[in-house]
TrEMBL record:
Stated name of the protein: Glycosyltransferase family 2 protein
One Gene Ontology MF term: glycosyltransferase activity
CDD domains xref list: Beta4Glucosyltransferase
Family note: Belongs to the glycosyltransferase 2 family. WaaE/KdtX subfamily.
Species of provenance: Ensifer adhaerens (Sinorhizobium morelense)
A Pfam family hit: Glycos_transf_2
Superkingdom of the organism of origin: Bacteria
Positions of the Glycosyltransferase 2-like domain: 7-118
Keywords: Glycosyltransferase, Transferase
EC number(s) given by UniProt: 2.4.-.-
Top EC class, one word: transferase
Amino acid sequence: MNKLPLSAFIICQNEEAYLGNCIESLEQCSEIVIVDSGSTDGTAALVQSYIDKGWPIRFLHEPWRGYAGQKQFALDQCTQPWCFNIDSDERLDEPLKALLPSLLDAPPETVGWRVARRPYLIGYGYTPERAHERRNLRLIRQGRGRYDLNQKVHEGIVPDGAVGAAAKGSLLHYRPLIIDEQILKENKYSTLKADQQFAAGKSARPYKMLFSPPLYFLRLYFRNGLWRCGFPGFIEAMTGAVYAFLTAAKIYQRHALKRHPNHDDMDRRASKR
């Protein structure tokens, strides 16, 4: 296969179960940069097995810098004219692979491309093409975009020019977490988001606890098309609503604790001092 002038970059830690299929979907890339932040499973051995087979992989080790910082480090290691951000649990579907050459042949004023992502739902499989997440900037010209290092979660490339949307094709996201594990993930990400917004001086907006969850659900379920996936799609949209509620509630509580630190009104010891 003729290689494209494209570097894929991946950050990982303990991704042995997922990384292989991700690498397999990147056979068009001239370079694959993998940055590991301290795996203790078989990730390193897996990557080495692909290197031994001749895959154009550069395997680097870097202590954790946070999501944005780690991805920026990985992007900085890329040497090809175009760079593609992909996670260990993602892979390119066939329509996106077929479209890549034309995306890379874009006019100079186009510095990047947004790509859709389709998750794998327990009890359903990958969502259909018409039920995908919003398109995010994943493909960027070398030197024409950087990560905002202030973003603790949902980090994205900030481009310095015009960005297009890939007309077809998707990243397939394969990490089927049962609801027990998914809620833990939403809790973790909502904490990062709340900390980020609190540190940035965002004020508490109690009404968001009321309105953000249903709006988040409606966006995922109807606009993104998860209604097409039956109850698995309903569960996916509902967990998104939980994330929205937790984020708003955590921001509210952080401000509440700053204004009124916790104090036990029935603490008899304090009155005796």
